[in-house]
Amino acid sequence: MSRKDGILDLVVKTAPFRDLKSGVKPEEYRRASDEWCRRLCTQEGWRIVRTEIVADWLDWLDPSSPSYCRSTHFHHFHTARISLGYAHDRESFTRPIKRIRWGKPNPAWTYGIVSAEECFIIELEAPE
Length: 128
Prior knowledge:
With about 130 residues, this protein is of the alpha+beta class.
């Protein structure tokens, strides 16, 4: 992942890779974890999450919460670089990011990898 150039690296398995590449799957999911919150949040956003202002960072992502996050608390990623696995010669492609949000994933696109609970949703532009 390169925050400076606005590229978010996403490593996926075969079925999601195929469907993301073809445009059948218009979004990718990342589970609720400190790791993904750190990757997606700015230092200020992460500081707010880890202070006593927000007891649980999941509350911070809830639009009904008084401490709901602002777009300025997230890094600005404009492109997703999607790779098939971790091999040195792996296949990859890029796709513009529409937005990153918090919500429930579409069960048809989780492939049993992400639970039906809320997660980070990375919405992608349709392929050209």
